[in-house]
Write a structure and sequence with these properties.
The complex is a heterodimer of chains A (455) and B (959).
Chain A lengths: L2 H4 L17 H11 L7 H9 L4 E4 L9 H5 L8 H26 L4 H26 L2 E2 L12 E2 L1 H18 L16 H14 L3 H12 L24 E5 L13 H5 L11 E4 L1 H10 L2 H7 E3 L18 E3 L17 E5 H15 L4 H10 L10 H15 L6 H7 L3 H7 L16 H6 L10
Antiparallel strand pairs in A: 1-5, 2-3, 4-8, 6-7
Chain B lengths: L1 E2 L20 E3 L4 E3 L7 E5 H5 L6 H4 L7 E4 L9 E4 L12 E4 L2 E3 L10 E7 L2 H4 L10 E6 L5 E16 L8 H15 L14 H5 L3 E13 L3 E13 L6 E15 L4 E15 L4 H8 L17 E3 L15 E3 L6 H7 L2 E19 L2 E20 L1 H7 L6 H10 L10 E24 L2 E25 L20 E6 L3 E14 L3 E12 L9 E12 L4 H4 L4 E15 L8 E4 L8 E3 L4 E3 L2 E5 L7 E14 L4 E19 L11 E22 L4 E19 L7 E4 L5 E4 L8 E5 L1 E4 L3 H5 L12 E3 L13 E6 L4 E11 L2 E11 L2 E3 L1 H4 L9 H6 L24 E3 L2 E17 L2 E11 L3 E3 L36 E11 L1
Parallel strand pairs in B: 7-10
Antiparallel strand pairs in B: 1-3, 2-3, 4-9, 5-6, 7-8, 9-10, 11-12, 11-48, 12-13, 13-14, 14-15, 15-18, 16-17, 18-19, 19-20, 20-21, 21-22, 21-23, 23-24, 24-25, 25-26, 26-31, 27-30, 28-29, 31-32, 32-33, 33-34, 34-41, 35-36, 37-40, 38-39, 41-42, 42-45, 43-44, 45-46, 45-47, 46-48
Classes of the chains: A mainly alpha (455), B mainly beta (959).
Chain lengths: 455, 959
């Protein structure tokens, strides 16, 4: 009887029914936005690069960068903040994707619009699951409507199946790069989804499928190599012909980019512009030199004392001898919101995936491999055995894709990790280090979840 | 045996909180004789309240009510934290419900303690259930004074007191600071300071002054045939121990009762108006005073404010540098004296409160009562921020013309405004209307008392506004929006509050047979508009209790030893509706935010959105309590006492929940998450006697023990952390099996003596010789979160109070003390010391200075990791009052009595805690200062206001 008396309208906050609704596209934009978070700068560097043989922690010896020294020395644990941050970030990205898919599906926009937005969301969800499965193996497959799924790890194979399903659907829904309106440059494309799927196949040893998918991208007519390798990570090639997918960043006001990606890796000390983390290792420098690969070496590494392509002198007073040039931003230096687009999938990787898969299934691997080498003025490869060629392609991946956040997972995928880490003076424990530990904070929340072996 | 609220009882110092068996206890919608109670109620009278000079009545009652834990704060105008029978919630309100003369009020800050006749605290569910959804934290029932039959009585009461800090922490002096600073610099590298310095500032000495407390109270009361009246005026002022910190309150009260139709109709009217003015000062100054170096002067010789600047070339702490010399900072803190000097805030409040009640006797035993009441509240806050002066003071070499130049060059920059003026106004209103019938009859040995009624209430009707304008003229008379410069855009916000409405039905039956066997039952049905989200407005809150008055049985009737003995017990269910509002957060943002992204050839910013967290259904918290007790009186009233045991479960405590890491959402949300149990016992004992020589004396004491435990946490909700040190470290975590707000820390097992020592053992990667060494609890060779241990909570396990009264001829003496224990305190201020900040003398004297010097205390170079080293025992005992009075009875014409007294309050404290005060109720987190959340920094020492000692003289005159 008194319900009328109790039914008091909210005055402080506008009731959800009275709020203007957000367009489905906004929720999809919000997924992309997640990749600009701080964790995709600092934590990401730790778990993809510093941990590998390509990079060292860098910075001052007294500055551990939180847990970066632990990662560099393979002393990380289930409470390492960077590992927890990435695990969490992937799931929040997946959550935003799933919510977008649900919201878009239920919305009243046209089917064409729906199709593209769902395609984008599925691509981004697949990318996040791929990052997850590479780091952690068996992982949670999140169901938006069922909280009980958050505590159950699904076998790796099922996670890969889920990724493939998302990507196949995304491929069927997404437009080609050239079909997008200019204002949408940077959104996920059919080519991006195909490229990622080729990589996902490669990781599973599905060589035929990897070969086919990479070939599809190569033959799509949408992509090509940039003429000059040195420009592949510079402003002028952003979203260019070599780009399958990259994270967008804008350096001028209103600036928005991956939080401090350039700053954390900028030269440190007097005359520097950054924190000096994630520096090239001697081991990587040696690898370039051993191959006689001066072009990629000089495009990847900033040497103390050198004059950069934009005329900036890196004074000898900076603290570390080498820095990551791919993170260098000419215009924005160490701005928090820099202009550095982070290349996620490049065309040259498609050539290398095709070559690697071709070698395994007895197809022509050399022409793709040599196409990559020719650009950086390296002699064509020929006359190698299958095993020799495999190693050669792996090394090519290392040099071509150095500091592109793949090295550690390549090492684990190809079984080279123990030997390569030993060569870099680090102890890789077989049966443990292949996977990162499930974060302790997650296990506290969901005690029924199992930890990875050895942790 | 049951009477209505209007019963008057003379205050008797020899029976405070004891069982005056025929005393009336107000239990909501009626009152009952103490001897007939079936539930647990603690009571205090006017004497108890007036014994200790304080802003609000509850502060004076610390240690006087068993089971009521009162944690004081000595800030001017500050109100204590009151917890009845433990803490059952984290995010929900923890304060008891206050009821003044039948009217539910938000707090009692506006009530003049001298106007209070008595306070009854309903402690158990069996009694509190009459307040249903708002009864979970106990109910404090306040009855104000009313006129009594007889001649006009005029009372004048006054006191004046001075206050000084007690239990100060001794900080290092200049020489000790220099040694410590240079030791640390040698360990980490960096410029040293020279050993001969100009200044040796004791910041606390500079900052603190003698506080004052003054009260003047006049009351007139009396009664005629058809009218009772009471009128009072009170003026209260408190000056804080920080220069300029001040609180003033003026209150006026008029309570009148009218009797009509041969007393068949009684009309009671109570109205009060309270005006307060407060000049707050930033208590963060205590933090800075602790941390700032003694080498920094308050002011340099030239009158400029001192700052921690030192010349790295000469090593001298000065801002002066010759050509080629370089200066640097000792630390990043400012000058606390300058902070206090430039702080300019003022708060004015006005509270008008009143209620009127009509009580009509229909037939024998049947009464109908209708009452209505309302509270209107105005709050006005003003802050003047002299940006320009502060900028100039920010460096001794800055000048006004430099500022003017920058201002001209940066016409829109907020850094170069002359000043800002912030005005914040709040206006609220609440009303209630209650109607109930009372049936009170005795049929032979069967006594019945039945109350049934309805109530409607609406609170939180109002609005707030917040305006900031810039560049007003310097003189105070021009500080208004009207006089602000047009050069900067004003910031204006105004919003309405969403009112909360309550509708309730309630009924209570009390029955006894021959004053031996008692049964009581309550049912209240409450609807609250807060739970509109899920349309679940209504809740039902029952309770039942029984009692057996054994002393009325034949076999005890003639006992000389036991004059009264009653066993009682009950059960009840209560609600806590003071819970956070829950809503689905859809986040959008402008500018750089992870909701947004850039697309297109021009990389234009596009806006995005995401769901932070969907809302969960949140309802009131439910508390269920079993309790039992025993009341007794021995040796013809010489010994009185009671014993109580309770077991109280909060079934569905609301917590702020961190998302499961693998969940889709990333914003915290609130949900019913845990079950919290508080169980414990209370003992109150009082002995009083009178010797043949005319000495009357009484010794009373009470003790209560409470065990708090989180017994269940909903799956997925565990692992919530809190107690941020502000540097990325956390000190608390939630887990089933631990008390609320448990500290969770590394266990210290020594000090690293050498680098070899570190290399050969599990260590943090930041470890260096002289750092604390943490125990590898799980033995995995790595020090990480899994090595942290639960180490107890800040919530005291026990509290106790003692109270001694002596009366001899014209002299009277009161001594009382209060203590608490079993609690832990985290010394956050000591833990978070950064290089160049000052230390305590203890820290200096005990430090590690090289291999073999100490395996307990770290060196000058130490980490800021949260560990057991900084967790200290919080047990304390405070001698809270000694008062000696002398009465001039009937010595002067027309003066009935004149009493002069001297009093010392907080004479000393016994505690092992190394900080300023073990009573820490505030949350240091921004904007959450008073929420008392166990997962905030409550119980952690950051910038606590010290306890103060008060010496006062007073005068009571009765005409």
């Amino acid at each position: 009887c008194s319900n009328e008396f109790l039914d008091i309208a909210s005055e402080e906050n506008i009731a959800i029914d009275d709020q203007a609704t957000q367009s489905p596209e906004k929720y999809v934009n919000g997924i992309y936005g997640m990749f600009t978070d701080w964790d995709y700068a600092f934590s990401w560097l730790g778990v993809t690069e510093m941990i590998s043989d390509n990079a060292d922690k860098g910075s001052s010896s007294t500055d551990n960068g939180g847990d970066k020294r632990d990662l560099d020395e393979l002393l990380h644990s289930s409470t390492t903040g960077s590992v927890e941050a990435m695990w969490t970030k992937f799931y929040k990205t997946i959550g935003r994707s799933s919510y977008s898919i649900k919201y878009t599906t239920e919305s009243t926009i046209t089917d064409t619009e729906k199709s593209r937005l769902i395609g984008e969301a599925k691509f981004l969800r697949a990318l996040s699951y791929f990052y997850l499965v590479r780091m952690f193996g068996d992982v949670v497959i999140q169901d938006l409507e069922d909280a009980s799924t958050y505590s159950v790890r699904q076998p790796k194979a099922e996670v890969y199946a889920y990724i493939e399903e998302d990507l196949l659907d995304a491929i069927s829904k997404l437009p080609l790069k050239s079909e997008y309106a200019a204002k949408d440059l940077g959104r996920a494309t059919k080519g991006a989804a195909q490229g990622l799927l080729a990589k996902v196949y490669l990781y599973q040893g599905k060589n035929q499928q990897a070969y086919d998918m990479a070939t599809t991208v190569i033959n799509s007519g949408q992509y090509d190599l940039e003429a000059d390798y040195a420009t592949t990570w510079r402003v002028e090639t952003e979203n260019g012909k070599e780009s399958l997918f990259e994270i967008q960043a804008r350096g001028t006001a209103v600036a928005h980019g991956v939080q401090q990606y350039s700053e954390t890796q900028g030269a440190r000390g007097t005359g520097g512009w950054g924190w000096g983390f994630n520096v090239p290792s001697q081991n990587l420098l040696d690898a370039f030199n051993a191959e006689g690969d001066a072009i990629r070496r000089d495009a990847t590494i900033i040497f103390r004392g050198e004059t950069l392509y934009d005329g900036r002198l890196v004074p000898t007073s900076v603290e570390n001898p080498m820095y990551n040039e791919k993170a260098y931003s000419s215009a924005n230096l160490g701005s928090g919101d820099g202009d550095k687009n982070i290349r996620v999938i490049r065309f040259s990787e498609m050539l290398l995936i095709q070559a690697e898969a071709a070698n395994e299934i007895g197809q022509d691997a050399l022409s793709s491999l040599n196409r990559v080498r020719a650009r950086v003025k390296l002699a064509p490869v020929s006359g190698l055995s299958k095993d020799q060629l495999r190693t050669k392609i792996w090394n090519e991946r290392r040099l071509e894709l150095a500091f592109e956040h793949d090295r550690w997972f390549d090492l684990v995928r190809t079984g080279q990790a123990k030997a390569m880490m030993a060569a870099n003076g680090k102890i890789f424990v077989t049966g443990k280090h292949e996977l990162f530990p499930i974060p302790n904070a997650q296990l506290i929340q969901t005690p029924s979840m199992t930890q990875n072996p050895g942790w | 045996q049951v009477t209505n609220d209007s019963i008057q009882v003379e205050a008797d110092p020899f029976a405070s909180d004891s069982i005056i068996l025929n005393q009336a206890v107000v239990i909501g919608y009626g009152s009952v004789k103490k001897s007939d109670l079936t539930s647990a109620v603690s009571s205090a009278n006017s004497k108890d309240i007036m014994q200790i000079a304080s802003t609000t009545a509850m502060q004076s009652l610390q240690g006087k009510l068993a089971g009521v834990n009162i944690i004081n704060t000595d800030t001017p105008g500050g109100t204590p934290t009151v917890l009845v029978r433990g803490m059952g919630t984290a995010l929900g309100g923890k304060a008891p419900l206050y009821v003044v003369d039948g009217l539910i009020v938000p707090n009692i800050a506006n009530i003049n303690p001298s106007d209070i006749d008595k306070i009854d605290v309903l402690k158990d569910a069996a009694s509190s259930a009459i307040y249903g959804v708002r009864g979970a934290n106990g109910v404090v029932v306040i009855t104000t004074k009313r006129g009594k039959t007889g001649k006009l009585k005029v009372n004048y009461d006054t006191y004046f007191g001075v206050r000084n800090t007690m239990n100060m922490v001794e900080m290092a002096d200049a020489n000790q600071y220099i040694t410590y600073f240079n030791e640390q610099r040698k360990a980490t590298g960096g410029s040293l300071i020279s050993t001969n310095q100009k200044y040796n500032t004791d910041w606390f000495d500079e900052m603190l002054t003698t506080g004052q407390i003054i009260s003047n109270n006049v009351s007139l009361s009396g009664a005629g045939e058809s009218i009772n009246y009471m009128f009072s005026v009170n003026n209260f002022e408190e000056k804080g121990i920080l220069e300029g910190n001040n609180f003033k309150r003026t209150s006026i009260r008029s309570n009148n009762d009218y009797k009509l139709f041969d007393g068949k109709l009684k009309i009671k009217q109570s109205v009060s108006a309270t005006f307060s003015r407060e000049i707050p000062k930033p208590y963060g100054a205590f933090d800075v005073a602790y941390r700032q170096s003694p080498l920094v002067p308050v002011k340099y010789e030239n009158g400029r404010w001192g700052l921690p600047i030192f010349n790295t070339t000469t090593g001298e702490v000065t801002y002066v540098a010759n050509a080629g010399e370089v200066t640097s900072n000792l630390n990043s803190h400012g000058n606390p004296m300058a902070t206090l000097f430039y702080d300019n805030q003022k708060i004015n409040t006005t509270t008008i409160q009143g209620n009127i009640e009509a009580e009509l006797k229909l037939t024998k035993g049947l009464t109908i009562t209708s009452r209505t009441g309302a509270t209107k509240y105005w709050y006005k806050y003003r802050e003047y921020n002299p940006i320009k002066e502060k900028w100039i003071a920010g460096n001794p070499i800055r000048t006004a013309s430099e500022f003017e130049g920058l201002k001209a060059a940066n016409p829109t920059s907020g850094t170069y405004m002359n000043n800002s003026l912030n005005l914040n106004n709040i206006e609220t209103f609440r009303w209630s209307w209650e109607n109930f019938v009372t049936f009170d009859r005795k049929f032979g040995d069967h006594s019945f008392n039945v109350v049934a009624g309805v109530s409607a209430e609406k609170t939180g009707i109002g609005e707030f506004s917040n305006t900031t304008v810039y560049d007003v003229p310097d003189k105070e008379q021009y500080w208004s929006v009207h006089h602000a410069s047009g050069d900067y855009e004003a910031s204006i916000d105004q919003n309405n509050y969403t009112p909360v409405a309550y509708a309730s039905y309630f009924a209570r039956l009390q029955y006894n047979y021959a004053n031996k066997y008692y049964v009581s039952g309550i049912i209240r049905r409450d609807g609250s508009s807060q739970f509109k989200n899920n349309q679940q407005y209504w809740g039902t809150f029952p309770s039942a209790s029984v009692a057996w008055n054994i002393s009325n049985e034949e076999f005890l009737k003639d006992s000389n030893t036991i004059s009264f003995l009653k066993l009682r017990g009950g059960w009840g269910r209560l609600g806590n509706a003071d819970v956070p509002y829950n809503y689905t957060t859809i986040t959008t943002a402008t500018g750089s935010d992870n909701a947004n992204y850039v697309f297109g050839p021009g990389q234009d910013l596009v806006f995005g959105a995401y769901v932070g967290s969907p809302a969960y259904d949140v309802s009131w918290e439910i508390v269920e309590e079993w309790s039992t007790g025993l009341d007794f009186e021995l040796f013809k009233g010489k010994v009185t006492g009671n014993l109580d045991y309770y077991n109280k479960t909060t079934k569905n405590a609301i917590l702020s929940i961190n998302q499961i890491l693998s969940s889709p959402y990333d914003k915290n949300f609130v949900d019913h998450a845990a079950e919290v149990v508080n169980k414990g016992f209370e003992i109150a004992l009082n002995y009083n006697n009178e010797t043949s020589g005319g000495l009357r004396y009484s010794i009373g004491g009470n003790f209560n023990y409470n065990e708090n435990e989180v017994t269940y946490v909903k799956p997925g909700y565990a692992g919530m952390t809190g107690g941020s040190l502000g540097n990325g470290q956390i000190a608390k975590r939630l887990e089933a099996g631990q008390p609320l707000g448990s500290f969770w820390l590394y266990e210290v097992e020594g000090v690293w003596q050498t680098q070899t020592d570190i290399d050969n053992n599990a260590h943090l990667s930041s470890a260096r010789p002289g750092h604390l060494r943490y125990k590898d609890q799980n033995g995995d060779g790595v020090i990480d979160d899994r090595d942290k241990k639960f180490m107890g909570s800040y919530i005291p396990k026990f509290n106790y109070g003692i109270n001694i009264n002596l009366d001899y001829k014209n002299f009277d003496l009161n001594i009382s003390g209060y203590g608490a224990g079993g609690n832990k305190i985290y010394n956050g201020i000591k833990n978070t010391r950064l290089g160049g900040e000052n230390i305590t003398v203890d820290t200096f004297n005990n430090r590690w200075t090289g291999a073999g010097t100490s395996n307990t205390n770290p060196g000058s170079e130490r980490d800021q990791v949260a560990s057991s080293y900084y967790l200290e025992k919080g047990d304390y005992f405070r001698l809270s009052n000694i008062t000696l009075g002398y009465n001039f009875r009937d010595k002067i014409d027309f003066v009935k009595n004149l009493r002069l007294y001297v009093s010392a309050q907080n004479v000393f404290i016994v505690t092992k805690y190394s900080g300023f005060t073990p009573e820490l109720t505030l949350n240091n987190e921004k904007g959450k200062r008073y929420d008392g959340s166990p997962y905030g920094t409550t119980g952690m020492d950051f910038s606590a206001y010290p306890n103060v000692t008060t010496f006062l003289v007073g005068l009571n005159v009765e005409f």
